[in-house]
Specification:
This protein is α+β, with helices and mostly antiparallel strands. It is about 20% helix and about 25% strand. It is globular. The mean pLDDT is about 90.
């Protein structure tokens, strides 16, 4: 185990605790500007590599959760229709949290079961 691996950890889903895959370009580039992915628990996530685009990245994660339906995503209410989680100090180069110089943020959304 390297020194970096001992001082850092892989990014874990804030809802189920499983390691998430590295954010990647999403198939529909017209809808999605930021890299993202989906956890096996159903949560969607997007990467804000600069930690300065939080609103746009969070909105994209909501649209992903709604399978591209922008109208539905805009009608959702926090803690009623969905829960959100954040992974801070993420390094996309190392795919680790708390890596030296890491400042990326991953925004995670999981729709409540009734949505």
């Amino acid at each position: 185990m390297t020194l970096l691996e001992r001082k850092t950890k892989p990014p874990l889903c804030p809802f189920c605790g499983q390691e998430i895959a590295p954010p990647r370009p999403l198939e529909d580039n017209f809808l999605y500007e930021f890299d993202g992915g989906e956890c096996s628990c159903g949560a969607t996530y997007c990467l804000d590599p600069t930690a300065r685009n939080g609103g746009a990245v969070l909105m994209q994660a909501m649209v992903q959760a709604c399978r591209g339906d922008w109208d539905k995503a805009q009608d959702l209410s926090s803690d009623i229709d969905y829960v959100e989680g954040v992974i801070t100090r993420y390094s996309p180069l190392a795919h680790r949290v708390n890596a030296p110089g890491a400042f990326g943020t991953i925004y995670c959304i999981r729709l409540n079961s009734k949505k």
